[in-house]
Amino acid sequence: xxxxxHRCWSLNNAQLSAAIRRGLVGMPNVCSYDLKKLDRxxxxxxxxxxxxxxxxxxxxxxxxxxxxxxxxxxxxxxxFSASSMxxxxxxxxxxxxxxxxxxxxxxxxxCYRPIQGCERDIRDIVQNSPTYLWTHCxxxxxxxxxxxxxxxxxxxxxxxxxxxxxxxxxxxVDAIGWNYAILPLxxxxxxxxxxxxxxxxxAWEFHFPTTGERLAWRTSSILTTCLPILSILPLGLxxxxxxxxxxxxxxxTSRFLAASICILLLTxxxxxxxxxxxEIFRSLFxxxxxxxxxxxxxSFPHFG
Length: 304
Known about the structure:
Helix 4 runs antiparallel to helix 8, helix 8 (183-200) runs antiparallel to helix 9 (211-230) and helix 9 runs antiparallel to helix 11. The protein is mostly helical. It starts with 12 loop residues before the first helix and ends in a 22-residue tail after the last helix. The longest helix has 31 residues, at 252-282. The protein has helices spanning 13-21, 32-38, 43-65, 72-90, 120-127, 159-165, 169-175, 183-200, 211-230, 232-241, 252-282; strands spanning 131-132, 153-154. The relative contact order is 0.13.
């Protein structure tokens, strides 16, 4: 409600849909050509980036076929590249760098009093407002009016879960304490963490300075792959014990235990990732001579 005290409102897609549905504003008349002109995303740059990633994959496959060793640095670059490839594909058709402002004038004033159901004018907009992930709601801004949409806010309305899960949508949201805004971040962290750690397992039989470092690399790779999966249960328990709408006050001891398990798993994951980063550069000083032999893939023209 505090965000709506401004003279102008910044609405996300769900709030704008609710305002149009309630007749507060009309459908904006903007053609698709004008929207494409506002997009600053260059698909050529994305294609070149994807070509670089594919070239790295071809190089690794060629070295494997020729029985030539690769470096841990190349495997780490492959892990980062795979994550970038997924990001490019997910945001391929999304507009980027749009800094245009379009102001829509209200067709009527919203009703605040419960007269003939008009109280839903404000309720529909508030219920679809951004949900903050890690910070509190910011409502004061002396320089900007309207208050812009937050970068750390999630704009996923709860109605979307009803569409995806059907009759299980509401029980599912209840099971996670109505923390549905954290779900996209949690899903991305679990899937991305598994992919990132699993690719490091490709260096299972690589040359390492010592046997202990090889064992530590294998252990760290397994940990970075499995810990995101193991964190699903304690994270879900913590969300259930920390409801967004506190209808009941959970036991502080239960919340402390769930949070402690999440922090412990995160600490172990962080230490494993730090070791992989350090070992990537340390192993460069102990490369076998065969690692400097180039394959046929090196003759392709490419951007370094």
